[in-house]
Amino acid sequence: MKLPQIFATCLLVLLMTSNAMAGMMNIAVLAQGDAIAGKDRYGSFSGWENSGPIVGAAPNSVYHWYDSYSYNGSYRNAFMQYEIAQFAEAVASITSVNLYLYNIASAIVGTGNLGTVNHASNPVAATGQASQLIGGNQLVGYVTDLSPDGWISFDVTDYIKNDLTAEFNWAAFSVNQFGYKSMAFGSAEQELASYLQINYTGADTPVPTPEPATFALMLLGLGVLAVFKRKSCLNGNR
């Protein structure tokens, strides 16, 4: 293959891959995007009083306890929002979506199911602020006493595709207390932000265009190739 043909082929491949790459994107919750909130009770003459939202909790503790002797009690749920607007025109290109939480096993109290992970079916009012306390109404899965310490994941592909089809800019989830138990997961403030991992393929995905340096390196490589080819020809003519 002659040098001009090599150059044209490399350029075409690079241009094609910049517009048709398959890959993965992580969308992490922002500091204002996760919060905890719940209610507290103080004695037999007290009702359940709202507590929170607490934006900046580290970690996000989800629990419920109640003392039948003193009538004191407390519970907390966690709320998260993730920006998905960048995939609004690329729903068909999405192959899978997983929600990742950093489970803190040392916070576990109780056995069996410790908390429920839920997706909000209608987050039309969501603005990325977890203080809105948009709770999930669709059960995604459970965190249990057998969940490992560290990152755990939940398949939320259909939920996110439905959100995008409905033209929601934000996906909202909550982790709700389950029984008189306790669990916790990492927060953005701990640099253990929960995140959505979106896998995609096709030409209409929001992938970054190669930087000018990429093209420069390719051209430099072709230039070096041209020099060697010229030297080879000169040596052959001697």
From TrEMBL:
Residues 1-22 form the signal peptide. Residues 73-199 form the Carbohydrate-binding module family domain. It is found in: Secreted. InterPro entries: CBM96, Ice-binding_C. GO terms for cellular component: extracellular region. Keywords: Secreted, Signal. The keyword Signal applies. It comes from the Bacteria. Residues 208-231 form the Ice-binding protein C-terminal domain. This is PEP-CTERM domain protein. It comes from Desulfovibrio subterraneus.
